[in-house]
Amino acid sequence: MQRFMRALERFSELCHAFGTLVILPIMAVVITLNVLMRYFLNLPFVWGEELNGLLLFLLLVLSLTYTWDQGKHIRMEILYVNFPPRLRRLAD
To answer: Which end of the chain has fewer CB atoms at under 10 Å, N or C?
Structure first.
């Protein structure tokens, strides 16, 4: 069972690495090209915003398990810090 869990952790790390090392730069390039096309040629990519929305969603999905395992996921800190210990355990 520990081998299986380690394999899942490794898969989670690979998904996170793919998202941050491949998808994020692609998003930056698409945004940059879209802005340049819009300002210099007044002809933005029709598909640019949709692609970036999909890539952003994919980045979120690929990195979610890794950030959850590392304890670095986004929480509603304003509410979370005011929870009693029992409710914090439930939220975690």
So the answer is: N
Q: What is the torsion angle, in degrees rounded to the nearest 10, for the CA atoms of residue 14, residue 16, residue 18 and residue 20? A: -150
DSSP state of 48: H
Contacts of 65 (CB under 8 A, 6+ apart): 12, 15, 16
52-to-2, 32, 46, 81 alpha-carbon distances in Å: 37, 11, 11, 33
**How many C-beta atoms lie closer than 10 Å to residue 5's C-beta?**
9
CA distance 14 to 43: 37
For the chain (92 residues), the mean pLDDT of every run of 10, in chain order, is 90 92 95 93 90 93 84 70 86 79
Q: How far apart are CA 60 and CA 64, in angstroms?
A: 6
Q: What confidence score (pLDDT) does residue 71 get?
A: 72
